[in-house]
């Protein structure tokens, strides 16, 4: 071999060795890898999720320890830590067909289970009721545990119970769940009240006075617009997505998105597969009936154990995605809904409301540890750091502060419900 040829061979090998590590790194990069910029931004932001049904596990599953990494479900402290989740609204949810004193008792049990989780793990969790509490918890590297109530039927048509729940730390109430109650129409039931009744309007006024966020997820469109005509404070949709993308009545129309923006509120995007994908929604309803019917069937199968109900539903849906009987829904659909909501309502009015531990998660967003992927994807779409921080938690903190301010001003003025 000539001297020149050897030189060329050596040069070629050297180039190959320089390129190889980058090639290997590219080929072996994990699917959940995020950019250094995304990781830094995610760590810097205060990340808040406004809806998780984890209290069902805390109450029904006596083997569940939130401090220990679980093999199933979506939420535990180790995975929240990995996902950089700084604040979580634990949903106090009782099915719509459980009413009267049994609903009140169940609600109290779930509130107690949530408060006990914070009490038993003071080095990791702290009960929070204000935006300042959330910021303080983040500064102390603890996870803020907040509470929201999903379904106005749990006040049993008694304003004193609403005040009691607020005193125990509940900071939002979804006015209805899947069925109407005695004072508000639900999006998934036949209209009975033409929106809000007179008592329902009093509930909204009292929530404004108490500093509880009015949550318009689940409500009928007429109920939604009745609330916005009445409220003195910004509202939230704690876990709703875009109806233009997935045509479910639980989702928000573009007119509703614009109305929430005008009100100063925030729409928190839901990750449930049937609320993300129209193809999945149609196929799922053909296979198992409406979401109301399928949940009722699973609840009966699980003997009323609602932790079992939601987890069994997700297991069945994921199994169906795997064997092809239901279309696969990928986590990127979350980004599609966020992006649409931002284009319609603006980056100041969109946030995250996963429905973890209460719904079928899309593939790739199996639990809270995957949350940095959302930050990475938004940055790749060209979102500014400031707007991403707002979506991750800044917007809901702003709304909390505004709701607190309205309540404070009402207290000074002596406002009556």
Q: What does this 3D model show about the protein?
A:
The strands form two sheets. Strands 1, 2, 3, 4, 5 and 6 form a six-stranded parallel β-sheet that branches. The protein has a single domain, classed as Metal-dependent hydrolases (TIM Barrel), CATH 3.20.20. Residues about 1-30 have low confidence and may be disordered. Strand 3 (about 125), helix 6 (about 130-140) and strand 4 (about 145-150) form a beta-alpha-beta unit. By secondary structure, the protein is α/β, with parallel strands linked by helices. It has 17 helices and nine strands.
Write the layout of secondary structure elements.
Blueprint: H1 3-28, H2 36-44, E1 48-52, H3 54-60, H4 77-82, E2 87-93, H5 100-120, E3 125-127, H6 131-139, E4 143-150, H7 159-167, E5 170-174, H8 198-210, E6 213-215, H9 221-230, E7 236-237, H10 254-263, E8 266-269, H11 273-276, H12 278-288, H13 291-301, H14 306-323, H15 332-345, E9 350-352, H16 372-380, H17 385-413
Parallel strand pairs: 1-2, 2-4, 3-4, 4-5, 5-6, 7-8, 8-9
Helix pairs in contact: 2-16, 3-5, 7-8, 9-10, 13-14
Briefly characterize the structure.
With 417 residues, this protein is an alpha/beta fold. The chain has helices spanning 3-28, 36-44, 54-60, 77-82, 100-120, 131-139, 159-167, 198-210, 221-230, 254-263, 273-276, 278-288, 291-301, 306-323, 332-345, 372-380, 385-413, and strands at residues 48-52, 87-93, 125-127, 143-150, 170-174, 213-215, 236-237, 266-269, 350-352. The longest helix is centred in the last third of the chain and has 29 residues, at 385-413.
């Amino acid at each position: 071999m000539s001297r020149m040829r050897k030189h060329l061979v050596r040069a070629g090998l050297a180039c190959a060795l320089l390129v190889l590590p980058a090639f290997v790194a590219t080929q072996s990069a994990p699917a959940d890898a995020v950019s250094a910029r995304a990781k830094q931004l995610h760590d810097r932001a205060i990340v808040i999720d406004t809806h998780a049904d984890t209290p069902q596990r805390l109450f029904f599953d006596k083997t569940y320890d939130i401090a220990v990494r679980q093999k199933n479900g979506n939420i535990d402290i180790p995975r929240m830590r990995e996902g950089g989740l700084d604040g979580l609204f634990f949903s106090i949810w009782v099915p719509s067909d459980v009413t009267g004193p049994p609903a009140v008792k169940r609600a109290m049990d779930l509130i107690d289970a949530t408060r006990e989780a914070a009490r038993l793990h003071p080095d990791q969790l702290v009960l929070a009721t204000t935006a300042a509490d959330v910021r303080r918890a983040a500064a102390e590297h603890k996870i803020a545990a907040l509470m929201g109530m999903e379904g106005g039927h749990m006040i049993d048509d008694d304003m004193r119970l609403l005040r009691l729940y607020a005193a125990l730390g509940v900071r939002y109430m979804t006015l209805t769940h899947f069925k109407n109650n005695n004072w508000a129409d639900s999006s998934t039931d036949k209209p009975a009240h033409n929106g809000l009744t007179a008592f329902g309007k009093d509930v909204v006024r009292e929530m404004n006075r108490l500093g509880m966020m009015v949550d318009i997820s689940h409500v009928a469109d007429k109920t939604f617009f009745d609330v916005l005509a009445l409220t003195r404070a910004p509202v939230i949709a704690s876990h709703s997505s875009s109806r233009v993308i997935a045509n479910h009545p639980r989702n928000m129309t573009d007119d509703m998105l614009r109305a929430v923006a005008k009100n100063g509120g925030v729409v928190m995007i839901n990750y449930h597969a049937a609320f993300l994908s129209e193809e999945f929604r149609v196929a799922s309803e053909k296979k198992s009936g409406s979401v109301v019917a399928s949940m009722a069937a699973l609840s009966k199968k699980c003997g009323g154990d609602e932790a079992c109900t939601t987890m069994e539903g997700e297991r069945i849906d994921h199994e169906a995605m795997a064997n092809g009987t239901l279309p696969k829904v990928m986590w990127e659909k979350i980004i599609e809904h966020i992006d649409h909501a931002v284009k319609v309502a603006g980056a100041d009015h969109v946030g995250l409301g996963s429905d973890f531990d209460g719904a079928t998660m899309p593939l790739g967003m199996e639990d809270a540890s995957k949350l940095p992927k959302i930050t990475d994807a938004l940055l790749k779409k060209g979102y500014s750091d400031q707007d991403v921080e707002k979506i991750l938690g800044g917007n809901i903190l702003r709304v909390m502060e505004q709701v607190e301010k309205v309540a404070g001003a009402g207290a000074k003025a002596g406002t009556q419900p």
